Every structure is written in structure tokens, then in C-alpha cells.
Amino acid sequence: MKKYTDSGKKDTRSGFGAGLTELGKKNEDVVALCADLTGSLKMDEFKDNHPDRFFQVGIAEANMMGIAAGMTIGGKIPFTGTFANFSTGRVYDQIRQSIAYSHKNVKICASHAGLTLGEDGATHQILEDIGLMKMLPGMTVINTCDYNQTKAATIAIADHFGPVYLRFGRPKVANFTPEDQTFEIGKAVQLQEGSDVTIIATGHLVWEALLAAETLNEQGVSAEVINIHTIKPLDKDAVLKSVAKTGCVVTAEEHNYYGGLGESVARVMAENNPSPQEFVATQDTFGESGTPEQLMDKYGLNAEAIVKAALKVIARK
Amino acid sequence: MPDISYLNDLIIQVRRDILRQVHKVNSGHPGGSLGCTEFFVALFQVLMERKDGFDMDGKGEDIFFLSNGHISPVFYSVLARSGYFPVNELNTFRHINSRLQGHPTTHEGLPGVRVASGSLGQGISVSIGAAETKKLNNDDHLVYTLCGDGELQEGQNWEAIMYAAGNKVDNLIVTVDYNGQQIDGATENVLPLGNLNAKFKAFGWDVMEINDGNNLTEVIEGMKEAKSRTGKGKPVCVLMKTVMGNGVDFMMHTHAWHGKAPNDEQLEIALSQNPETLGDY
């Protein structure tokens, strides 16, 4: 098994902030908009370095999405920043009409996604955003797993023309992907090679999938682990190639099982190579207040849950 | 500026285009379109500084956004008759495989349309974004927007109105089609708008009024005045009083033709009140 080392826990939102800072220096067309959450989104450095290219819109997310759409006319590349809940559900129609249908080059950057937002509770813990965004024609949907990958993704999406939803989170988590990685939109990353089960994970669940693979290995089960950072377009070839070898899949995500990564993987398999699948995801529920660890444990989104799902899906082969 | 008799002929021809478009497909929004005909003709023929070539990169020219996208028939007619696309294409309005969707879209690549609109309340925000980009690009051209009065019931407008004043977006002129009608009836009965002049002023805008938005000269002079007020630290709002259905007697002063097409007989009467000038498509 490959060994992955946590170089020190860091939050993915700081990866976004670092990526945005770098973009600010190298691409004059990049502008940033924020709806009164500059500190939470780690956009301060961009703001301080480029006050002329930073737009504080106040607590008015619908207006922010519209302004971002308009800023593309004349060649700017707007990055909007607010929590995932306010980046999607609150402004769905603004994104749908002014950004997606109008095919505007806006990067919707969303922090505090999912249960790991923690103590603020269910009003802020969106578990439906991947589904909302992936249903929009032409929208690219990315959910990164650690600081380094989020930074790389932030930089990469500036070079991709078209609307992008970039999802990341609040807590500090293991930082284990390479610092100097090249982020390729739509290209899955195989982290472990295995033969008994494929674990396809996204976001904060990728590190948990690696921990699960170690536990499974100790039990004599060989797990392949794939990091799907781009949920749309999905890397179908990577999914099918792995499933052809292992014959079963566990998908793992910090999202409702309706509309998430799991459904996308299931569709690809149904169309090409129907195989048993187990879903590590929230089971059509809202979250609640608690620490990220408590919530991920209560709602079954951790390494332990992935191990259980892997053993179950292998038994179904 | 083209001479006034040509512009008057164009206004009548645009009215014919509006009526014929909605009649052919038995759907669409003639009332608001007819009410804004003079405004569109003034904007595209007289007021806006436009580049040749219609390249749509948004740089080095005035640009326009239609927020109340349902009045697409007047937008399409004036765009076509200003050279953005062939006038004959008006034949395809609301038909399958057409670039002239019921509500405007960039999706099909129709020149002149810079954002999709139709779901109301989004145009001022988009215009602010385009205006901010013009400032970043050191482009001293203007952004013009038209929105409906009923449309101001959408809350997003007031987020945008607050932002534009607070951030001194003074290269923006928002014109409100103040006809007092919306699809369910008079705005006064559906949801009263209150004193719009005072509201925009209270939000920090420079507000002016055009008392007869169906008088071409008044529209041109009023909008020139609005233009002279740009660049002074405040966004400019023009409350333009119009008559829904203007130019067709039985369509005027009622909300009944907001979203209804005339039948054959009604079309004939309406067209007879607006005899062909520049040639039908």
C-alpha cells in the first residue's frame, strides 16, 4: 500500500484563499466578490493586495451572483465567495439564468459545505448543493479534499472558461496531497490500487477512505481508493476501469445520497457495467449542531462507516 | 442622429413587428413591448455609442441590458432593424430551433443579447457588474438598463439599488418602464410600489422623470439629460411613464394585453392603425 502522510492539518478554505492570492498576482482579470464573509472565506489577502479588484457586496448573495455575471462582460473572471448554502440554494435562480444559462465565466466558490461546518447547525450545513449544481447544464462541479488540492483547483479553474462550482469546507483536516500538484478538471486521482473493492470518495471523505483502506488491508481486503475531485464532468473511464477489476463500489461524500457523487457513479455503472454499490452519505436528513467529528460519526461519514460499507458491498458481489 | 421622420417611421414599423411576431405564434407580450417602442428606438438609434461590427466583447461601447425580458418582441425588432441580425429572422420568434426565444438568451448566440433575462429582478445586478468591469477596464462608456415597474417587487432589485449607490456606480442609467400595469392588473392593486422617486432617492440615486415615455423627443431629451448626470458619483434612475399597449387603441390603458396575442381580426385593426413604413419582414 502507498503511504500517505498528513503534513499538518489545514482547512480547505485556506487553500482557496492561498490559491486566490496567487491568482491575484498572476492574472489581472481575476476579480473577487464576497457577501460579508471575507474572513471566513480567507479572502483577506486578495482584498489587501488588490482592493480595486475586490468587491464587498454585503449580505446580498442574489445581487452578488448577478454582479458576477455582469462582470464577465468585458472580460473579467469573477470568483464569488460565501458559504455553500448561500452560494447555491439561496441563489439558485440567479445562478441558473444569469450564470449557467447565459454561460458566464463565473467561479462560485463555496466554503463551510456539509456537516463539518459544525456548531452553527442545519440552517448552514447544506447537504444538497452538489445535486443542485450538477443539475445545471454546463456547470462544472468540484469538491476538493485538502488544502493543497483546493489551492491547486482554485488556480486551475481560472483557466477553464465557463461556470464552475468549487466546494470546500471549514475545519482543519489532513493535508496529504502534493504541494506542487497539477489540478486537472475532470480527471480522477487513484490513491490506492486494490482488487476487492473500489472506494470512490470526494471532499473530506477522501482522507477517511485512505484510513478505511488501511483498516481493510489489515483484515486482508484489498481496496482501491479513487479521489473524485470533479463530480461533473465525472471521470467515467476511471470509475469503469476500477469496477471492472474489483466488481463493487463504495462511494463516500459529505452530502445527501440524493443528488450526490454516489448517484453520478451509480448512473455510470448502470449504463455500462451494473455492479453492487453502497453509499456513504447522509440519508435524506438535515444536520444539527455538534463538533465536526461528532457529526461525521453520528451521520456515518467516516472511515469506520466506509469499512462497514466495503465489507457489505463485497458480500453482495 | 437619423432624422426624426425616419425615426417616427421606424417606431411604427417596430410596432408592426411586435404585433406580427406575437400574432404568428399566438403568444408573447405585446403590451409592454408597444409601451417601450420609443425608448428602444431612441436608445439604439440615437443615444447609445455603439461599435461597428457587433462583436459583443463588451468593450469600448455603451451596452444595454433588458431586465424585463418578456418584452423581447420590441428588443428583437429594434436589434434586427439596427443591424444586429437579419430582420427576416423575426419570423422565427418563439419557434423551435430559433435564436429568438420567448425570453432573450445568450444561449443561442443572438447578437445584441448579453445575458438571459425573463426571470425578473436580475438585470440591475448584472448591469452593475458590467459597469464595474467598465471602470476596471478604464472604459468610459455607459451601461443602460431597462426594467419594469412591477418587476421592482422582486427583492434582488433593492439589494442592487443599495449596492450601486453605496459603491458610486455612476456609469449606469436604469430606466424604469413606469406604466403602472402588471400581468394581474394595476400595480396599485397587485402590490403598490409607493413613491418610486422617493425610494430611489432615499437609496442614494440621482432620479429624474420622463413624463411621456411615448413621445420620442421627450425620451431623447430626457435620456440625454440622464447621460449628462452620469460620472458624478451617483447611479442614475429614470422613471419613464409609458402607456402599456401604446399605438393600438384597444390595447392601451389596460393590463389585458400584457401577455396575450391578438387574433386575426384584432391584428388587422391594430396594423391598420400602424400602416407599413419601412417594409414588413
UniProtKB/TrEMBL annotation, chain A:
UniProt keyword Chloroplast present: no
User: Could you tell me which residue ranges the Transketolase-like pyrimidine-binding domain spans?
Assistant: 10-175
Q: Which domain of life is it from?
A: Bacteria
- What is the required cofactor set for this protein? thiamine diphosphate
Q: Which UniProt keywords apply?
A: Thiamine pyrophosphate
What the record says about family reads: Belongs to the transketolase family.
Record protein name field: Transketolase
Q: Which organism is it from?
A: Pukyongia salina
Automatic annotation (TrEMBL), chain B:
Extract the InterPro entries matched here. THDP-binding (IPR029061), Transketolase_N (IPR005474)
* Keyword Lipid metabolism set for record: no
What Gene3D superfamilies would the database entry show?
3.40.50.970
Keyword terms: Thiamine pyrophosphate
Needed cofactors:
thiamine diphosphate
Instruction: Please report the stretch or stretches of sequence annotated as the Transketolase N-terminal domain.
Output: 14-267
What family does the database annotate?
A: Belongs to the transketolase family.
Q: What is this protein called?
A: Transketolase
